[in-house]
């Protein structure tokens, strides 16, 4: 696999994901394009992030496997539905762009990241940040396995720098 989007997509397939609910975003465009092209996954485009989370929760109750793909700012809007899911033990699996604590290119990204982190931390949701050069396919598969087996929600943050080769310098990041 050449890109993190391809590896994440492969992980979703390995996890048996049947539905992808997403709000279009430039940070997740490569991933959602792969999912849209895959006949094994039914896609639903939502209008708001909290709507997507509610749809995914309903699918879980119906015995289906779903993922929500969004920009991390959507987590800031979704605190109420995430709290409801946690309290009723209805898990939701979320892939959120940005959310890394390093490598963000623009200073204005820190506001939605701070809001997302506050919601995730405040609700004590399991979360991980994908790292460069790790096995994203295996990480996604294991993360969903945890969601399903523990009946817990999890957020996987997908930083935009995953496919940058020059992580120790600003050259690759400054071109964005």
Anisotropy-based shape: globular
Order of strands, widest sheet: 2-1-3-4-6-5
Strand composition percent: 15-25%
Fraction of residues in helix? 40-55%
- Assembly status: single chain
CATH topology: Rossmann fold
CATH class category name: Alpha Beta
Low-confidence stretches: 165-176
CATH superfamily: Thiamin diphosphate (ThDP)-binding fold, Pyr/PP domains
Counted beta strands: 6
Rg on CA atoms, Å: 15 Å
Give the integer mean of the pLDDT values: 89
Q: Briefly note the structural class of the backbone.
A: alpha/beta
Total of helices: 8
Helix and strand element order: HEHEHEHHEHEHEH
CATH architecture: 3-Layer(aba) Sandwich
Our count of domains comes out at: 1
Sheet with the most strands, sense and barrel status: 6 strands, parallel
Give the termini separation: 23 Å
What's the gist of this structure?
This protein is α/β, with parallel strands linked by helices and 176 residues long. The chain has 8 helices and 6 strands; from the N terminus they run αβαβαβααβαβαβα.
Structure description:
It is a single chain. This protein has helices spanning 4-14, 29-37, 49-61, 73-77, 79-87, 110-122, 136-150, 171-174; strands spanning 19-22, 42-45, 66-71, 93-97, 126-129, 154-158. It is α/β, with parallel strands linked by helices and 176 residues long. The chain has one domain (4-110, 120-174): Thiamin diphosphate (ThDP)-binding fold, Pyr/PP domains (Rossmann fold).
